[in-house]
Amino acid sequence: QFVWGYESDNGPEHWHENYPMAKGDKQSPIEINSKDVQHDSSLAPWHASYDPGAAKTILNNGRTCRVVFDDSFDRSVLRGGPLTGAYRLRQLHLHWGSSDDHGSEHVIDGVKYAAELHMVHWNPKHGNFARALKQPDGVAVVGIFLKVGKTPKPEMKRILEEIDNIKTKGKEAPFQHFDPSILFPKSRDYWTYNGSFTTPPCEECITWILLREPIEVSSDQMAKLRSLSKNGENEPVNPLVDNWRPPQPVKGRIVKASFK
Ligand SMILES: NS(=O)(=O)c1ccc(C(=O)NCc2ccccc2F)cc1
Ligand SMILES: [Zn+2]
Question: Which one of 153, 154, 169, 214 counts the least CB within 10 Å of its CB?
Fold first, then answer.
């Protein structure tokens, strides 16, 4: 039975065989070229109001490291920007490379960042997440680029400290009292466009909000992330790296910028 992944036999080039949406017209990620972006002065600023008490657990699902939040009511929400209404924070996760020179999913003016962090929110007007992902306005993901520099990002430490407890696939640990808005960069500038999950089933339900300013992490912090394994305990070690989908066809979509 086909289990999708990022290897040559089950990677992004194969996904469409089991998930036809993967060949849709509004797929993510994409390459963003500043010259094709349209500044939209009507775009509102976005606001996150997260409850640190909503954080629940952190897990290694063999494909990424994911922090899960209580989304049973409007407890941690994202508002504004291109969105109508309050979207509930459900989980955050990352995509990263096997070395510092690549790993992000979106590519900005040819620049690949070392990693890309996704904060996944869904529109409660659709009742639940499974229904929301069938709607064009169902899901909103804030994407933050991680750039390798000399100074480690202290706010990333909480996540990276937990890595040792979730080394292998299926491992989960409590992860409480965490407000992910501490990860945001200073600037609120963003690009936004309509796209999809970057993993199967590649549903085209996402309003992407990509922050222009990357956050800086250290090479050691990236090495820590790369110490996660795809394999389960007592299985041969298979490093969890290069869990990113390459850019997909833009197909005439307009990327808007909140800034000039
Ligand atoms: N990389 S991303 O575009 O930000 C992204 C965000 C969320 C998911 C997700 O929830 N998958 C699980 C899932 C659950 C239920 C139904 C379908 C699903 F994909 C996958 C990818
Ligand atoms: Zn993602």
Answer: 154
pLDDT band at 211 (very low <50, low <70, confident <90, very high): very high
What does pTM read for this prediction? Answer: 0.98
Share of the chain above pLDDT 70, in %: 100
In whole angstroms, give the CA distance from residue 227 to residue 241. Answer: 9
| Pair 256, 40: CB distance under 8 Å | yes
Across 77-165, the runs of DSSP E, i.e. the strands, are: 77-80, 87-96, 107-108, 115-122, 139-149
The predicted model gives 228-243 an average pLDDT of 98
Residue 102: both structure tokens together? 């690549």
Q: Helices (DSSP H) in the chain: which residue ranges? A: 15-18, 129-132, 157-162, 219-225
Q: What is the dihedral of CA 135, 136, 139, 144, to 10 degrees?
A: 160
Q: In terms of DSSP bridges, do strands 172-174 and 55-60 run parallel, antiparallel, or are they unpaired? A: antiparallel
Asked if residue 55 has its Cβ within 6 Å of ligand 1, the reply is no
Tokens, residue 208: 């992407």
Check if 44 has its Cβ closer than 6 Å to any atom of ligand 1. Answer: no
For the chain, give the mean pLDDT: 98
> Which tens digits make up the pLDDT trace of 46-67?
999 999 999 999 999 999 999 9
CA of 89 to the centre of ligand 1 (A): 13
198 lines ligand 1 (CB under 6 A): yes
Most informative mutation of 15, 64, 131, 133 for ligand 1 (most atoms within 8 A of CB): 133
Q: Residue 128: count other Cβ atoms within 10 Å of its Cβ.
A: 10
The closest-lying atom of ligand 1 relative to the alpha carbon of residue 195 is 3
